Amino acid sequence: MWRFNNTTPLYLQIVSFMSMDIVSGKLLPGERLPTVRDLASTTAVNPNTVQKALTELERKGLCYTERTSGRFVTNDAAAITAARDEFASSFTSEYVEKMRSIGYNDSAISAAVADCINNVEVESNA
After folding, report:
1. What's the CA gap between 75 and 10, in Å, rounded?
2. Calpha distance 19→16 (Å, rounded)
3. pTM
């Protein structure tokens, strides 16, 4: 399900959603991406906006175009890893900023992360 917000341009949100699908493995290396028309229909977004998003994904190295066959997820593991690392850095920075804004210092933030990891491990093993 595509849920857009009004604070970020649509094409960047599409890039983010599709990048997340690529780095998480939901879209596999070499997998054919939906056409511009299909994505526009699915997302209820103008085809020009979808085209701009796919062009940006290609610029980032997360997909490539085969002239007569369409667009495909990159087979470049390094590009996928770099995008995954970019997401992780962004998520971590956002978390640290929010924790600092409520008065946590770095050691308290580290302890909170460790507690969370331990709790998730316990829950997933139960």
Report:
1. 26
2. 5
3. 0.84
